[in-house]
Every structure is written in C-alpha cells, then in structure tokens.
Amino acid sequence: MGHYSALAIAREAFRDHRGWQRAWKSPEPRRRYDVVIVGAGGHGLATAYHLGKNHGITNVAILERGWLGGGNTGRNTTIIRSNYLQDASAAIYEKARSLYETLSQDLNYNVMFSPRGVMMLAQTEHEVRGYRRTAHANALQGVETEFIEPRRVKELCPIIEIRGPRYPVLGALWQPRGGTARHDAVAWGYARRCSAMGMDIIQKCEVTGIRTSGGEVRGVVTTRGDIDCGKLGIVVAGHSGHLAEMAGFRLPVESVALQALVSEPVKPCMDVVVMANTVHGYMSQSDKGEMVIGGGADGFINYTQRGSFSHIEETVRALVETFPMISRLKMLRHWGGIVDMTGDRSPILSRTPVGNLFINCGWGTGGFKAIPGSGWGFAELMAKGESPLCADLGLNRFREGRFIDESVAAGVAH
Amino acid sequence: MALEGRIVSRRLPKGGRLIDRSRPLGFSFNGKEMRGYAGDTLASALLAKGQVLVGRSFKYHRPRGVVTSGSEEPNALVGLGRDGSFEPNVRATTTELFEGLEARSQNHWPSLEYDVGAISSMLSRFLPSGFYYKTFLWPRAFWKHVYEPAIRLSAGLGRPPRRRDADHYEHFNVTVDVLVIGGGISGISAASAAAETGADVLLVEQASTWGGRAPIDGVRIDGLGAEEWTGSTLKSLQSLPNVRMRTRTSGVGIHDHGYVLLHERLTDHAPDHSVPRHRLWKVRAGQIVAATGAIERPLSFPGNDRPGCMLASAVRDYVVNYGVAPGERTVIVTNNDDAYRTALTLREAGLGVPAILDARQEATGPLATAARDAGLTVRPGCGIVDIVGRDRVERVQVCSQDGDGEVIDEIHADCVAMSGGWSPAAHLWCHAGGKLSWNDEAAHFAPDPARPPTGADGVAMMQAAGSATGAMHAGAVLESAHAAGVAAGQALGNGRGRKHGRVPEGEDEAHHPMEPVWLVPARAPYAKRAKSWLDFQNDVKVSDIELAAREGYESVEHVKRYTTLGMATDQGKLSNINGLAILSRELGVPIEEVGTTTFRPPYVPVTMGAIAGEARGELFQPVRKTPIHEWHDANGAHWEPVGHWRRPYAYTRHGESVHDAVAREVLATRSGVGLLDASTLGKLVVKGPDAARFLDMLYTNMMSTLKPGKCRYGLMCSENGFLIDDGVVARLDDDTWLCHTTSGGADRIHASMEEWLQTEWWDWKAYVANVTEQFAQIGVAGPRARDVLNELGPSMDLGKEALPFMAWTDGALGNIPVRVFRISFSGELSFEIAAPAGQGRALWDRLFEAGKSFGITPYGTEALHVMRAEKGFIMIGDETDGTVIPQDLGLHWAISKGKDDFLGKRAQEREHMADPLRWRLVGLETLDGSVLPDGAYAADEGVNANGQRRTQGRVTSTYHSPTLGRGIAMGLVERGPDRMGEILEFSVIDGEPIRARIVSPVFHDPEGEKQNA
Amino acid sequence: MLILTCPYCGVRCDETELAPGGEAHLKRFGPGSSDEEFEDYLFMRANPNGVHFERWRHVYGCGKWFHAARNTVTLEVYGTYSAQVHAPPQEIRDAVSNRVPGWHWKDES
User: Of A378, B38, B394, B929, most Cβ neighbours within 10 A?
Assistant: First the structure.
C-alpha cells in the first residue's frame, strides 16, 4: 500500500495517476479466521483495525452484505461530540472524539475531522438546567464543555435568530472540540489500513446462518461459502435482530428510519454545528458548502431506508425558525437510514448468550461520532473478554434495570 | 478575452413560439442592463444578448455556459434578486424573465471573466478525484486552521442569503384519484384517458406552458400539429368537472402510500410579496402517472465542457421556442437520429451547420436523409477529439470515433450540439421503491413495469407514461400514455366496462437505431480522458471515474462519493448514466450489474421556506393561554414557556430585577397572602365502577380507600419503575375521581390512561376525560388566605374544621360556582379554587380586589418553586429525570405495601432498583450560606476505570431562600439519608469547590403547622 | 407516509393523525414474574424484516388504539383490527397468508 502525501500526488500527477494502488484488496474468503466481523461499516472496520493495532490480531475477515461503509456510516450528518450526561456514554464518546483528532494521521487518510465546535441550544428553562448539569458532569468526566449565554451563541453563529417569538435561545451547551468529519472517508480509511494489515474485507458476502455447537460459535454460513472462526463480532446496526435470531437470541432493539437532508451548496456562512432539540433539528455546513440537516426519527419499524416526509417538514420548519436565512435556500436531497434503537436509547457492546459471539449495536441516532471509541472498546472486549469502555453497556442491564438514559424518556412504556 | 465584444449567440430576426416580441422586458446581469421579451427564460435572454459565459464550475472554476434548456441545467446558476428576495443557485434555464430581474453569476472572484480560482484548473492534474483524502495530513493543526478554511472558501456556489425572507409560503392538502405529473403530450393524453374512466384527475406541468417537447420536434397527432392538438385537448379537459390542471408545478417527491409532493411557483415569474411565493401541495393520490419525459445525455468528448457545447435538444429549443441562435456555426455530434432534428432546425433558421459528426458507422434513417437532402454534411464514424477556444468554442477538432484521437479535420464553429441518446426521467418512479431495467437497444434504464412502487394494498400505485417509459416515438409515446391513464383510472375501480376513447395517433420520423457511445473517441488516451467531462458542475471527468475504480472504489455508491459524480445541484440528471457506463467499462461488468445510485427526492430542489409553510414566527407553534393570560401580560409577567403554555415566571415591578421580584413574591405570600394562576395544572376525571381499581394500578398509593370529599397526594410510575408524574387526587363521589397532574404531564398522562384502559384492561369499566382547559384554577396561599376568601361571601364553610387540610368542597365565591381544595404546594395555608374556565378571569379579578386590603401579591412559577423547595416538596423534572424511582426520593410512604400490583411495582423489584448504594434525596446547606450551582456534582475520591472522576451525588434543585435568607438545595446523594450532617464538596467549573452539609430536605415549617392552619 | 384505516371510526388515516405504539400482542408481566419474563415483556422486540403486528393510536381523530398488520420492508398493510384481542383474528391472518405464502402466526405450527 503506497503512502498518501502531497508528494505522492505530485509524483502521480506526472504519470497520469497510474501508480495509485487499490485502497483495499478484494480477496476471496478463506476457510477460517481467528476473528470474523459481520458488517463493514464504520464500527465493524474500526473494531477490526483496533484488533490488529491494539491486540495484534490480524487474521481477521470483515464480511459485508453490500458495499463497505454503505449503511449508516455513509448516511449520517457527521456530527462528532461527546457532551453526554452519563459516565458510560461520555467515556466512549469522548474516547471516540479524542481518537478522531488524530485519525487522519493514524490512518494516513484524510477523514477531515473538523473540530469546529458543537452547540446545543437551550430553548426552555428545563433545557437550561439540563445543559448546566451536563456541563458540570462533563467537567468531572474530562469532557471540555461550557454553558454559554445567548450573546456568545450569536457571536459563534451569527445566522441564528436568538430572539424568536416562540422559543428564544436562552443559552447553549458548547463543546469547542466537537465538530464533523467526512463520513465515507472514515470507513475508507479504516478499510485501507485493515487491508494493509492483512485482513480480508469481503464485500457482497451476506451471512445467512451462524453455526454454533456446545453453546459456542463455530462459524458463519455465507453466500460465498462457510467460514469458520474463533470469535464472531456482529456489527450490523439495523439488521442486528436478524443476525441475533440466527444465533438463537433476541435483542431489545427496534429498527426505525432516521432522515437527513442537504441544501444546495453556498459559500461559508456557518462555522459551528448547531443542535436545537426543543424544536427538533440540527444543522452544520459541509466543506462543500451544503447545509447538512437532520431531525427526529420515525416511531415505527421500517427497513426501507426511507422515512416519513412529515419529519422532514418538521425539521425544516424548526430550522427556518432558528436560521431564517435558510428560507430561500433549496433542499437538494433527502434520504433515510435504518437505525437500531434500544430500550434505553444507549448502545449495546456486549457478550451474548452464545460463547465467543459478541454484539455491537443499538447506536440509534448517534453512531457515527462513536466509531473510533466503539472500535477501540469492542476490539478490547473481543480480544480480552472485557473492556472498561463496554462494562456498563452490556445486554444484562435491561434485566437488572441498570439503564443508561441520556434523555427523560426511559425504556418503553408498554 | 479574445472574444470580447464579438456577438456569438444572438436573437434571430423572427421565430420564437414562446416569446412575445411586442413585450420587451428589462433585466440586468452582473449589473449590466439588458432586454429580453416576455416568454423568455433568463437563459434564453442571456443567449440572445450574446452572454455565453454564465458561470464557473465548482472545483476548477472553469468557464461555464448554458448546456440545457430545463431543470437539469448544471451550469447556468445565478444569484437572483436582492435583500430579502435574494436567492442563490437559481437555474437560469427555468427562470422566467420579468421586468427588473437582477441576476449575478456565481463562484468567481473578482469577476466572472477574470476568476483567480481558475488557477485550480491549471493545477487540475494535481487535483484528481479524491485528492483531498490523500493530503492535507500534516501538520495536524493545519487542517482546522489553514487547509479547511481555504477549501471551504473555494467551494460552495452562490452567496448565502443575508436577510430574512421577504416572501411567505403556503401548503395545500389535496386528495385525488389520479395524479398525472408532466404536461407534455403524454401527460395530457394520460389525463384524458384517466378522466374518461370517471376518475378525479390532477394534471401538473413544471413549465409555464403545456405540450413539452412535441411541438418543437414537429410531432403530428391525429393529423394536427402537436401545438394545435395540445390546445384543443386541453380545452376539452378544462371543460370536465373531474379534471384540475396546474402549470409551474413540479412533482418533486413520491412517498409511500401515494403521498406526493408538488412544488408550485406562484410568483417567481412576477414577484409580489403580498401573495404566497410558493405552494407545497401534499397530495394523496390513488394512482400516479409519471409522464415525466426523458433527458438527453451529453457525449463524453475532450473539451465538452467549453461554453458553447450544449445538448442538441437545447439548441433546438432556443431556436424554436425563443428565436435565439446559440451560435452562428453549430457542429452536431451524436450517436442517434434525434440530433438531426437540431441540424434541420438550425438550417431552417438560416444558421450554419458545418458538419454532423455521427459516431455511428451508418446513418441512413429518414432524418439523416433529410439532412443530406438539405445539403448538410454528415460524417459517419466521426467524433470530436478537442475543442479549441478558451471561454467558448472556437474550433472543433474532428477524429475518427473508433481511433485514439488523431485529428483528421478542424472546423471553425462557435457551438456544438451534442447528443448521447435519451434517458427516461425515471426518478419519481424510484423514489418510493420502483425498480428500473436496462434496455440494451436504447442504452438506458427505464421503469420496470413488473417492479413498480407499491401502495398500502401492496399493488402498483404508479404508471409510467410516454417517453418516461423509454418510448421514443410519438406513436408509441401516446399509446403508452393512453394505456397508463386508463390503467390508473381502472386500478381505482373507475370506468370498468366503459368504452374507452381512441388512442391519439402520433406521427413522427422513424429512427435508425442509436448506438451506445460512452467515450469519444473510443480509444482516447489518458490526457484526453482527463478532459472529457461527465459532471460539468462538480468537474468530474472520465479519468476520475477510472481512477476511482482502479483504486478499489468499485461500487457505484463508492464512485459517486469518491468522485462526487452526480452530487451537484442537478443530482446527476446529466452525468449519471454516462458515469455508470465508464465505470462498467473500467470494471468489465455489464452496466445493469453496476446499477444506479439511489434516486432520492426531491426531483428538483425545493425552497426550504415552502417546506416550512405558514408555520413561522408566532404561528410556529400555538401558545396555550389560560383564562387569566391577558391579566398577567398587562401586569408585568416575565414569561416562561412550559410545554405549549406560557406561565408567569415572576411579575416585575418598575425597575425591579426578576430575582428581586421572586423574593418579594415569596415573602409576601409567607407573611400575608399570594395569588397564583394554577390553571395549567392537569385535570383528569376518572369515572366508573372500576375507576377505583384502575387508579390503584396507576398510582403507587392506594386510591380506592380515599373518602369522597378528601384529597390525597399520589405518585405515578412508568411500567419501567421510574417516577413520571405526581399530583393531588380528589374523590368526587363513589365512582368519580379528579386526578391533578403536572402542567407538562396532563396530555401524556391522559394518553397513558387511555392506553392502559384500551389495550390492557379493556374490560374494566372506567372512563377518563381531560378537563384541564375546562377549569381555571387559582391558588390563594398565605396566612391571610382564608380571610381573602371570606371577603367574597362564600356559600360554604371554609373554616379549619369544616374544610381541613386535604379536603375539598363545592360552593360559590362571589356568586361564581367553585370547587375549593385545601391543598398546598407552598407549605402555607392554601386554597386552590377551580372555576369554570369562562369565569376564571372574573374570579381572579374578584380575589385580587378582595385581597388588596391584605396586600395580596400575585406570584409566578419561580416563587412557587422556591416555596416548594423550602418545604422539601419534590418537583417532577427537577428531582426526577427519568432515572429516579420514588424510593430514591424518600417517598416510601406513598408506595402502597398492600397492593399486589401497580405500574412500576415489578420493575422496582429488579436488582439495581434495590441497590443500597442508590443516590437518595437529601437537603443541602452550604457552609457559607451561598447558593449551590444548579446541576453541580459532589466529587468522590479517585477515578473510575475510564479515568473519570468518581461522583457521589448531585444538586437537583437550588435556590436562594428569601424566607431563610440563605441558599438551600435538594440533591440526590449516595446513601444520603444515612449520612446526615456529613459535608460534601460540590465541584464548580473553573472555581473552588463549594462545601455543603447534608441535612433534611424540609427547611421550612417541618411540623406543617402553617399549611394545617 | 403511511395510510392506515382506523377500524373504529373507519377513517383512512394519514400517518400524521396517528401515533405509533410498537409491537402488538405483548403479554404483560407484573409482580411474581421472573426477571427474564419481565425483561422480555418490557424490552425484547420481534423487529422483523417483514410481517409485523403493531399498535397505533388514532390520536388526532377518534382517540382509539388499534392494531395493524404491516410489512416493514414493503410497507404493505394487510389489515387493521381491534386492539382488544390477544392475537390477530383469523381474517387478518388469512389476509397475511394470502399475500405472504408460507407465513404463519407465531402460535401456530
């Protein structure tokens, strides 16, 4: 694998770019691997990367039903933040955020991590209090955040209307080192490094069965033949329930549609990421100039990768109210992804009832920002059997009532 | 500028079926005054004035000219209007000219003609697709501070608007049987056929005129010219009561179950701020007919991005529709017969066509013959290997199509009309799950009728019609359109057995088969492929796709994302198929296996304001108002949003701070009497023989034992065990209870009660009514509260014995019928008085009047909160956050031990809920009397396994107590109640920790003497 | 944007009139149940790629809860029915079977 640099580009420029090698190989699956990861999205690839980098395990295959990075990794609004309230969440998201800071250099692939700052607007007294509390919690968790006043909000993001008639901005939780990254590049960069470490990324390879004996996993049945493995990691987001069923256990997960949209590109007008939770919308501006917008999830199971337009409408309405200047911008494209929501809306990184079978799912609406931390923790869990980052995120918490609730809405009422 | 001042495109002396030469219109481009005619688009008016250069591309800032005549235009994007009417990225090709239109070109500095950014074009060999993933890696800090800002500035297209939108928008909700999208001959024919079945039909067309391409292409229908046929058919459609028609209305999104979005532009062609600018139609259609036509593809030859290179159909459109000559000498380059129509049209208009370069070895169809007969030179087997010229076409270098690009001729020309064949506009078909199939002969993807988008009933909800199906001849087009219209009507049960009208007969010239040509010349070397554009706006070339494929980005989605092909504002309408073909060639797999990227809505970009609709400003969300709202507003209320309500936080007097107002209100209430509007409090009546049983399940305490005439404080938990609401329950009679909920909880708790009654205990005879807004509720609290009420001549005895604490009574106060509850959230002697909502304000006014001599003081929510905290009463949302169980709050007394079951009981038996180390409610008293910061945590020794500081408690409510003259707080602390007297350190961000002692949460009147008075 | 017909008032409801309520036919477990039963009841969900029985409320309409049999991949609605049953009625099962050969309700073999 050639090294990427400005020099390499200059060299290639003078030989018509003929010398670039494949970013990742396209091998035939072998009969057996020490570890098989199902799902070549950001989380699966990051797990494989850290298995190799942190634990020296490189006899690894990453199986992908479609194309790598083709699920939620390539469909999200790319926000990276770690200003979570609960310790377990803050730990893994902050680990991820800190790894993002050097990810381009670590992977020798520019993922364009842009620590431009993330602010979450407080538009009710209740939110003011909630965000002040979060800032206190973050200080002890080692997450740098502060509660800022409306004047500062306006300075950081002049296009915000802070005196809206219905929900004036009362302040914001500001994480200066949060930001965005180029989502596809994260998957591609990990894939390139994994391939360079000798791992096999096998695309268009669907897992159709999981073989177990004596309560332990033995391998997988795929559309490209049977593959044996010592350990199996399932990292397939919305399709987790389907894979778990193959292995004979159930999950506290429901798969619903989450949507996003972009405007046509305009010159820079917004240097920070803004989330407005009271009115349900968030927005940032991509390096291309598009306003990248996301909103709430649908409430029913949906595997179509399309959502209900009423949510797009609600989100755009909220953002036109918060950023009046976008009224005359145009929506260029909207799309949906399938997100896996758990009973407490926090992720699951866990052993399972099947020996040597591990699951990483339930990231819901927040998965992209967690990718490097999730990979770090899940690789450690798979390699060593335990990981401090995953300790509180196990499946057993639902039975014990040990929820990690980031919102007021706990569990499912009925 | 070699060509400065030379007219290269111009208005023809006659012709132009859409323009009205008697109505000239003035407009400006980049500050230069110009004139066009009514009926022009901005693009046609610019071309008429010789303005070939209209913009700059996204990545290399290359000069760009108009390529198309429709909504697929990638280049001619302008900033339109000014101030509150400014809009960036407006397609000149679909912008109707109006008097005073102001347009500016985009993405250049300092000017369109001299753009510094164009240097990136010279460096393009260093900037292949994905170059940014391979560099800008070091030094690390440079990405944020140097590289990214530079990239951002050079990216983006138009300027962002700076002002608030001067226009407004509206929504329509419409239900129709059959929605026909597209007002060309197919749409019109399909609409007629559907209407004949008796279905209600809505026919929409994105342009301002009907008929689509047929009138330009010389199609004849039923012996009439297409224009004439269109006119007469529309006339008969207009006379039908079951047909509605709209122009300037685009079908932008097909959603599940027949939900369709239409975007109608009402005033873009004649600005007027007094009426809505756009209208978003939300249509529920039984059946949808997509008569969306087809889009011509460019040809990929070196230099095809030079201004002056246009789609052959667009060249024809400008001549026929607008009487505009895009050039004096136009070279045609094509792989199909349709482009010959352009040659003939140009010839007819007296314009030069030096050559028709046909990539096919044979061109012998009727159109080619006609061209030869007209004296035009047809050169089969030929293509273009380069365009000479900088800001526009000057010479065309001709090559053999199957060669490697040797120049065999050079032709002076100022325009190139290119055609790579046509692709059905199948986008809408795909939005909601319809699939496409590849047609090898026509080299395009077309809707697969066997795999249509399906509706709620699982069967097809959509029909494709006309050239959207891939049909390319008038006869077949009309046949498919008629069939689609009939099928749509019949699918809804209309017109079965009825005789259907005749299919209109269309005539146009037969075509010699087209030949897929994806690269001109076929064996173009790298240097030429690096100059053959696929995506004109995003600067994606043939070589970029090849590089991506070579580097392993093999999936069509990878290629799109790596190269940005098809991600421009036209969303790949021009570039996608050509790009797929290059990818298919590079990978050596058939194009149908490569597949397409997902077609996503909207079909054309939709204004955000139109999506938001009317709900802006005050209308964003309705404000719920209590009957006493206006009084508060007139008396200094400092408002706080509580759910959809607004409540007075405090009432400030002249020059008084909010903080001082709160203190004054608390002290006045504690020492005299205060007045509170508690109308927002949830009021749910639960009634029926099983109401008692039902409430025993909902509340943790026993409600069935409550006596009529009495009140009891109750807690509600979720099935998951967490405390979700609290309030006072009054038993009105044997089978009727009134449940008070929190202000924010009323609707949620009401819904939850309905849910349990309807879906779990549906055989229980209990009924719930939410009467929150039927009653005003006013709190009168303080030592003089009873005196105030007695001033109003109560019809009932309000004395301590007759109406003790936690009792209620009906009666009248000042002749207003009321129900008086002896309940208290302030710890004072307190009456909460409910009155019919319509008399709420009158009661308030009388109480206020009667209380004047006692110094009655209205108080807001903050004083209420301070007083409840002084009494150690919990507040849902403060002491609870969805993770707290009643046991945490020391509310064991309100959890029945005698009940087998209630919601949350099983959950509270789980391991973690019974953990002795849970954080539990205590009072907190700072050692220095200061106020603890809200939400602060008490740090513990050491760090956890993830390096986070351990904690042992947190502040849940914290106030300055005017009564005690010091800070008081409540908090949840690990084993808190067992640690009375211990001192905790609460961390302060950027400050010294604050020390506080663990105390009882009841700071005021612990014996309850005042509230029981 | 789904359309479901409310079986109580007969209105063909736009999705915006409805509130989704998750999986239908869950059996409530209260005091006396095992930890596993209680966890199953509260959190474990079928979440199928395909036929799903689910709860909806006609919240901006008649206010009634009802059940729908719906496909989570094609979004086809096989039928809606009363929320006051413990399993889908026969005609709903038949409607599903007609459209999805080989499908059977989980309690049937």
Answer: A378
| Domains in chain A, number | 2
Alpha-carbon distance values, A151 to A171, A323, B856 (Å): 8, 16, 37
Alpha-carbon distance B363 to B336, whole Å?
8
Q: What is the pLDDT of residues B940-977, one digit of tens each?
A: 999 999 999 999 999 999 999 999 999 999 999 999 99
CATH number assigned to the domain comprising residue C44: 3.30.2270.10
Contact present, B786 and B850 (Cβ < 8 Å): no
Please report, for residues A45, A302, B912, B951, C46, the alpha-carbon distance to residue A360 in angstroms, rounded to integers and kept in the order given: 12, 20, 23, 28, 18
**Looking at the 3D structure of chain B, how many domains does it have?**
4
Same domain, A169 and A269: yes
**Cβ under 8 Å to B: C residues 29-48:** 29-33, 35, 38, 42
**pLDDT tens by residue, A50-70:** 999 999 999 999 999 999 999
Give the domain extent around B238: 169-295+424-500
Give B265→chain A minimum CA distance, Å. 13
Secondary element (H or E) of residue B530? none
Interface of C with A in 50-89 (CB under 8 A): 52, 54, 72-73, 75
Is B827 domain-assigned? no
Count of domains observed in chain C: 1
In a domain, C105, yes or no: no
Burial status of residue B933 (CB atoms within 10 A of its CB: 0-12, 13-18, 19 or more): buried
Structural domain of residue C30, as residue ranges?
Answer: 3-99
pLDDT at B290: 98
Interchain CB distance below 8 Å, C83 and B758: yes
- Alpha helices per DSSP H over C1-109: 35-42, 90-99
Residues of chain A with pLDDT under 50: 408-414
DSSP-assigned beta bridge partners for residue B738? B685, B730
B74 and B173 part of one domain = no
Asked if B150 and B191 sit in the same domain, the reply is no
Q: Kindly state the greatest CA–CA separation across chain A.
A: 65
**DSSP state at residue B460:** B
DSSP state of B627: T
- Say if residue B644's pLDDT is above 70: yes
| Domain membership flag for residue C44 | yes
**Rounded to two decimals, what is the model's pTM?**
0.96
| pLDDT score at B6 | 57
8 A C-beta contact, residue B230 and residue B188: yes
pLDDT attached to residue B495: 78
Among residues B149, B165, B181, which one ends one of the domains?
B165
Do B10 and B150 sit in the same domain of this protein?
yes
